[in-house]
Design brief:
The chain is mainly α. The chain has one domain. The chain contains nine helices and no strands. The longest helix is centred in the middle third of the chain and has 36 residues. It is globular and about 55 Å long. The protein starts with 14 loop residues before the first helix and ends with a helix. The model has no long low-confidence stretch (mean pLDDT 91).
Length: 242
Amino acid sequence: MTHKLSNDTGSHKFGFTIWGVVCLLISLVGFWPSYVAPLTTGTYRSPSPMMPWHVISTTLWLVLMVSQPWLIQLHRVNLHRRLGLFGALVAAGVVFTGVVVQLDVMGSYAVKGDTANAVFIPFIRFTLLLGYAVCVTWAIALRQRPDWHKRLILLGTFPLLQSSFDRLAANVFGLTEMRGLMAGVGHLVLMILFLVWDRRGQGHFHPVTKWGTLLIFLFYLFSPAIAGTDWWRELAASLAKR
């Protein structure tokens, strides 16, 4: 995450830093009952050896979501750029560890005959990582265009929070049967709120916010249909046996 000095003013001045804080808090609250609390008491049992590394990389990414735009507003551009190189490695770590964790848990669910967690949900998780990877890669390529860069970074981070909303529904609100719906709705609400906030601050719709939100919405609306195809079921079964 690296770009030129921002010229944000008014409500946008520390706006992206605040959005980073929001993302970090959503993740912390969502995972507190099922991960953080058991970890502190020594009762957590990891479903994958890669899980701790996935948690570390994702946490680092969310911390960078707060610190990077903050450094820009403090005119610490050189430090921002150095951390941006580190951020690219962190992003790669989020994707790699996320894929490995999902592959690890697919096998145990397949043995139990749990089709939902062995076939459908893994597909959704992979597409979330794909959306994140595409947005972040594009943001890195456009790092010399700060208005595009920072919006792509934020839109790419939102898909990661679907897991947090999933756990918020199940572990905080006790809505286990609605966790999947809440994950998708939570993601959609974040994008809409960001779209409205950005429109008010800019006075117009930025192309990334407008078209990025629309394309991401359409992608996550229609891609789950692939999870029910024979092609994916066969591939999921093969991955689960790896």
